[in-house]
Amino acid sequence: MPPDDPRFLAATDEIIALEYETFLAASGEILKTCPKCGGKTHRKHCTTCLINGQPVPLTGDVTGDEIAARMAAGEKVDLDEIFRKENFKPVEITGD
Predict the structure, then answer these.
(1) Kind of pairing, strands 45-51 and 40-41?
(2) CA distance 96 to 76
(3) How far apart are alpha carbons 77 and 66 in whole angstroms?
(4) What total of structural domains would you count in the chain?
(5) Is there a domain that residue 5 lies in?
(6) pTM of the predicted model as reported, rounded to 2 decimal places
(7) DSSP of 12-48, one letter per residue?
(8) Is 1 domain-assigned?
(9) Residues 40, 31: contact at Cβ < 8 Å?
(10) Which has the closest alpha carbon to 23: 39, 42, 47?
């Protein structure tokens, strides 16, 4: 649609944003969740949250996005606690 098309000129910001989200979804972008506000988007960053004046980047990996947001905010994050808490259990070796 050309930029001088009356349909484009009559479109509100909300309609344009919705069209862009639809385009991203149709292009295969996964739905991502912001770790700060819980908002969902297909974009590569949250459209409402900022950390240090920058949009919160989103990858689609909920744990990774949460860690990145916490670290960007200056919080010390214990990665060992996050990744080993439930994901890794001791292995029992039995000999015959």
Answers:
(1) unpaired
(2) 45
(3) 10
(4) 1
(5) no
(6) 0.65
(7) -HHHHHHHHHHHHHHTTPPPEE-TTT--EESSSEEEE
(8) no
(9) yes
(10) 42
In a domain, 18, yes or no: no
Number of alpha carbons in the 13 Å side-chain half-sphere of residue 41: 21
Task: Please report, as a single letter, which amino acid is at residue 78.
Answer: D
How many Cβ atoms sit within 10 Å of the Cβ of residue 19?
13
Range of the structural domain that residue 42 is part of: 33-78
Please, what are the averages of pLDDT over each run of 10 residues along the chain (96 residues)? 84 90 92 90 91 86 87 87 70 74
Flag whether 38 is in a domain. Answer: yes
C-alpha distances (whole Å) from 35 to each of 63, 86, 91 are: 9, 20, 33
Amino acid letter, residue 68: A
